[in-house]
Design goal:
47% of the residues lie in helices and 12% in strands. The protein is α/β, with parallel strands linked by helices and 290 residues long. The chain has two domains: 76 residues, Ribosomal Protein L15, Chain: K, domain 2, CATH 3.100.10.20; 178 residues, Up-down Bundle (Four Helix Bundle (Hemerythrin (Met), subunit A)), CATH 1.20.120.920. It is an enzyme of class 3 (hydrolase). One of its GO terms (molecular function) is endonuclease activity.
Length: 290
């Protein structure tokens, strides 16, 4: 490939998708002559080389393991309203996101408006349950919906266990010692952590407010938990029970297997882009009216 005047490859790293996400790992994010570039020795998705980053037209840079970022790069990203998140491989962990947010508050303002009114908050919660249930929900009683969800998730655990031929003795989760359960329960814990990390990326990318949830209420990551739970019945359990089946056949750590499987499924099913679309459809200013 021909090199441009700055010695950078002329073809920029393209957007990962139409949401303006760029995934970088195993390299250095820096600035040269006013241009953002990523220098990598390879080993990840990119081959070794110097790459120009189209920082003026992307929403968030996802910086994975083995990477570093310079002060100049942070300054340039902040100037152009491009967010930056430090993540685990494939976004199975979310470590930090400096406040370099998109230059718009539209989604945050709409989220606050919907959250502040009990009637509209209930409608968003019902829409979230409809996604989780795969059908329209009739009740407007949040406790009834939570009860229905409890029954459905128990059935989902059993079906996933049968699909992967795993003996299932029920959900057993100790908050003080999440590694105390059997292999399937440990896998669910790790898969849930990975899904929350993916939801953190999506929430940060659109500039939504993590604390303002529509189903979850007390956590500082309430809205993140709301979004992660939209994928609980299918993606989270698929990651967890598939990893548990593999762990029971090998000596490898179940957490390591879950992370590897989560990375694969996140990419194959475009989980984070899907989350971004769902956030916009639920609380975006251009969403379909109720």
């Amino acid at each position: 490939m021909l090199l441009g005047r700055l010695g950078l490859e002329k073809a920029r790293i393209p957007h990962s998708d139409r949401h303006g996400l760029i995934w970088l790992e195993r390299g250095r994010l820096e600035v040269e002559d006013g241009c953002l570039r990523f220098v990598t020795a390879g080993g990840g998705e990119l081959k070794a080389g110097d790459y120009q980053i189209p920082h003026q037209s992307i929403s968030i840079v996802l910086l994975g393991p083995g990477s570093s970022v310079t002060h100049d790069a942070l300054r340039l990203l902040a100037r152009h309203g491009c967010a930056l998140a430090a993540i685990g491989e494939g976004a199975v962990r979310f470590y930090t996101a400096p406040p370099l947010m998109p230059d718009t508050s539209a989604i945050a303002r709409e989220q606050v408006r919907l959250w502040a009114d009990p009637a509209s908050r209930m409608e968003v919660a019902r829409a979230m349950y409809a996604i989780r249930f795969g059908e329209i929900v009739r009740t407007r009683n949040i406790e009834v919906l939570r009860g229905q969800e409890g029954a459905r998730i128990k059935r989902s655990y059993q079906l996933a266990a049968e699909r992967y031929h795993i003996a299932w003795r029920g959900r057993d989760y100790d908050r003080d010692n999440p590694s105390a359960g059997d292999i399937p329960n440990q896998a669910i814990n790790h898969a849930s952590s990975a899904m929350r990390a993916a939801a953190c990326v999506a929430v940060a990318a659109v500039g939504a407010i993590p604390q303002l949830g529509f189903i979850h209420e007390d956590s500082g990551q309430s809205f993140v938990l709301d979004i992660a739970d939209l994928y609980r019945h299918d993606v989270t359990l698929d990651i967890a029970f598939g990893a548990a089946a593999e762990a029971l056949r090998s000596d490898e750590s179940v957490e390591r297997i879950v992370r590897r499987r989560a990375v694969q499924i996140f990419r194959q099913r475009e989980v984070i882009p899907g989350m971004i679309d769902r956030i916009k459809s639920l609380i975006g200013p251009d969403r379909e009216p109720d």
